[in-house]
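Continuing the series of single-chain predictions for the mutant panel. This is the parent chain; the variants come on the following pages.
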Amino acid sequence: MPLPYPPFDVEVTTPRLTLRAATDDRLERLLPIVREGIVGDDELPFDDPISHYEPSPTREWRWLRGVWSARARVEPTWWRLSFVVDVEGVLVGMQDLIAEDFPTFGAVTTYSWLAPDARGQGIGREMRSAILQLAFAGFGAREASSDAFLDNHASNAISRALGYEENGLDWATRRGQPFQLQRWVLSRDRWETTQQRAVTLSGVDACLPVLGLA
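Parent structure:
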C-alpha cells in the first residue's frame, strides 16, 4: 500500500544497494552509527555547519532535526530528498538529492556520508551513481553538481570517475577554518555516456507533483 507522502515511496535499486526514503524508523536504525561518530578527530570532510562534528548527544539531535527540517520544506521551489543506503538489509549511510527551483533550472546537487566500516568498498561510488540515475532518468535533470575539499580524495575521485568535470574552486569553513573546495559539474550529455544501466527506479511518478514536475 502506498505511503501517504509520495517521497517516502521513492526507491533506487542497483546490483549492490538500495536507496530508501529516510523515514523515521530508518533514521532510528542509523542512529547508532551517528552516535558512534562517522568522522574522527583528524577527519574534516564536511563544511560548516554540520552536525557530525558535534559531541554526542548534540550530534544525534542536530542530525535528526536537520533531516526533519529538510523533509518539511520539500516543495517545487526547494527540496531535499534524503535516502538511507541499504546494503543487503544493513543501513550504512545516507545519500541526499537537493534542488532549488528545479522546474526552472533542472539542476541538482548531492550530499552523502558512509559509516567508517563501509568505506573503501565502492559503495560511495555506487550510491552516487544511483542518485544520479534518479535525478536524470527519474526527474529529467539537466545537470548535477558536487563539491569536496581538495583533500577529500575519495569524494573527488568518485566525481571524476562518474564523468563530472572540474568547475573551479570555492571556499568554505570546516570547524571554523577556511579551506578550498573543488567544484564539479556533470551535464546530462556526459551522464548519458557514463550512467550505470542496471538501476531500477520505483515510486517516481507519484512523487513528481510534490516537486512541481507534473
